[in-house]
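yo

u said u wanted the structure for the complex thing, so here. seqs first:
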Amino acid sequence: MLRRVNKQDAAEWILSLAMPLDRARATVGDLIEDARGPLRFWGGLGQTLGGAVWGSFRAHPLELVGMVILFQILHTVLYYLTVLGGVLVGSRLPFLLVEGLGAKFSLIVLSSMIRSVMISVYVVLISLGCLITFTLARRLASRRPGREFAAAVSLFAFTLFTLLLVRIVDRLGPLVVLVITNPIWPIAAIAGIVTARRRSIEGAGR
Amino acid sequence: MTNETIGEFEQVVLLAILRLKDTAYGVSIRNEITACTEREPSPGSLYTTLDRLEEKGLVTSRFGDPTPERGGRAKRFFDVTEKGIRGVARAQRSYQKLLIGVELPGVAYA
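structre next:
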């Protein structure tokens, strides 16, 4: 019995990533009423989730693209700040921009003390970036109930695209920095989007 | 907006809701469509279509009371709006006009 309740709650939570909470509840209720076995239940859930995510892309493409662009701008600013943070300690800006996309400190000849300080600054800035991105993503997602999944998919797809682009054109050197994003930040953004407070749409309009 | 195109499956869903009157919700709409068309729509396509129809203003939805057989979850009931009725009527009139002079097996027309 406990397992059954958990399954339904899990299904409700998953669906609420792609539609407002009250609609997710009613849809899970339909799947419970209609289900003839777990395969049909989860199959129906998957189809409904896919349909809802695709519906979000179709209905609000500019909003999702806007969100991805916003995060990309934020990530670029954060990336430069982290590079700058390392540079302020290490004074090797050009070298870091060209070679240090991941701040490859091991390539720089520095005393162990300065190196450890640089790494500490870098870690602090990366963590701060995670926190900022997570918080911003959470706020944005809670204002757009039911589009969390679509936003997360967009962001994930864009991150993959960016990483692939960096792989493909990394011989371009500094130009790559313009499109760089630290892979940790989109993950933080997706975590923020997914853990945003689930809301109902009833009475709030859409 | 009055002449907004209504797709084939949207018409099917609207007609099922009209047939069910006050008892139209996810499961009953799906069952009605299956019974009348002998095609079982996937939950994904049905709910996406219902949401799209609501965004177009062709249907409205309201939540009923939670019931134990649904794990304490409410039903989401649907009603066709005046705009929806006009839209589906216009689409059906078009079909009827197209049928005039055409003989199809098992299809009766005025």
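Chain B has four helices and two strands. Chain B touches chain A at residues 25-27, 30, 42-45, 47-48, 51-52, 55, 63, 66-67, 69-71, 73-76 (CB under 8 Å).
cya
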